[in-house]
Automatic annotation (TrEMBL):
The lineage of its organism: Bacteria, Bacillati, Bacillota, Clostridia, Peptostreptococcales. PANTHER family: SPORE GERMINATION PROTEIN A2. Its main location: membrane. It is a multi-pass membrane protein. The keyword Transmembrane applies. This is Spore germination protein (Amino acid permease). Keywords: Germination, Membrane, Transmembrane, Transmembrane helix, Transport. The chain crosses the membrane at residues 6-25, 34-54, 74-95, 116-139, 169-191, 203-222, 234-256. Belongs to the amino acid-polyamine-organocation (APC) superfamily. Spore germination protein (SGP) (TC 2.A.3.9) family. It comes from Alkaliphilus hydrothermalis.
Length: 270
């Protein structure tokens, strides 16, 4: 769909996103809880089905050009998707303590949030690693360099009995599903931040104005995919403080808050 205007995809993303913001954070979380396991199963199943089409000798030679090309390809990918875990940190204040649903902050409730975030990062890293390995084993070096998004071409190689083929559409569905989840989380956080700054109403009140702002700015901020690729490296160095300092400050804040709450609970018990 290269000739389809980008605004069409933006509208298809924004309309359900506005509806999700209107319904609230809990409904969004329930939707993700329902669909995310299905998406992961489809993703893993596709990787399993493509295994017979892979040639593992294409991994060799390993690091023939040294470590620099590896780092040049790996470092920019810190942004996508690992750097985008930052909006999830804003959801910390909605986490209930002790997992009991009482809304109180207690021992274990806050650390569980961090544990689940790290578990999600580890699972995503494993899945993306296997995806990259599958792409590397499916094509030679020159062909791999010419592909815009190699995983789609890799999954396209799946054939089952000369009947079932072109399963890349399932990967496309998983891709857009996870991208939509990521978008509505970030979208909700933007509305939440605006609501906190203004101090009036609720996040849902700002869903439509933010959507209009995105539609207006999108042609200027994201005009072409090749420009996005060119800005990955500069963005990496600009965002390094965000990747490390913000999570570190969040961890320190959680520790201080837990100590204060434990002291307060001891004082009450005493």
């Amino acid at each position: 769909m290269p000739e389809t205007p980008g605004i069409v995809f933006a509208i298809f993303f924004l309309v359900p996103a506005i509806y999700a913001i209107k319904l609230g954070l809990e409904v969004m979380a329930r939707l993700m809880e329902l669909l995310l396991p299905i998406i992961v199963i489809v993703y893993v199943l596709l990787l399993v089905l493509v295994i017979p089409k892979l040639e593992y000798t294409k991994f060799l030679p390993i690091m023939v050009g040294g470590i620099k090309p590896v780092l040049a390809g790996a470092l920019p990918n810190i942004n996508f998707p690992f750097g985008q875990i930052l909006p999830v940190a804003f959801l910390y204040k909605y986490v209930k303590g002790n997992g009991g649903g009482d809304g109180k902050v207690g021992k274990g409730g806050n650390t569980d949030f961090i544990k689940y975030c790290f578990a999600a990062i580890i699972i995503a890293t494993i899945l993306l690693t296997f995806r990259a390995m599958a792409s590397a084993a499916a094509f030679d070096e020159e062909s791999l360099k010419s592909l815009t998004y190699a995983p789609f071409s890799t999954i396209r190689a799946i054939e089952i009995g000369n009947i079932i083929e072109r399963l890349d559409y399932f990967l496309l569905g998983a891709f857009y599903g996870t991208t939509f989840f990521k978008f509505i989380i970030t979208y909700y956080i933007i509305c939440e931040v605006i609501n906190d700054v203004i101090g009036k109403g609720k996040p849902a009140n700002y869903a439509v104005p933010v959507a209009i702002l995105i539609l207006v700015l999108m042609p200027f901020l994201l005009p072409r995919f090749d420009l996005i690729l060119k800005t990955v490296n500069p963005y990496l160095f600009v965002s390094l403080p965000i990747f490390f300092m913000v999570p570190l400050l969040l961890y320190i804040t959680i520790g201080i808050k837990e100590k204060r709450n434990s002291r307060g609970n001891r004082g009450v018990d005493g």
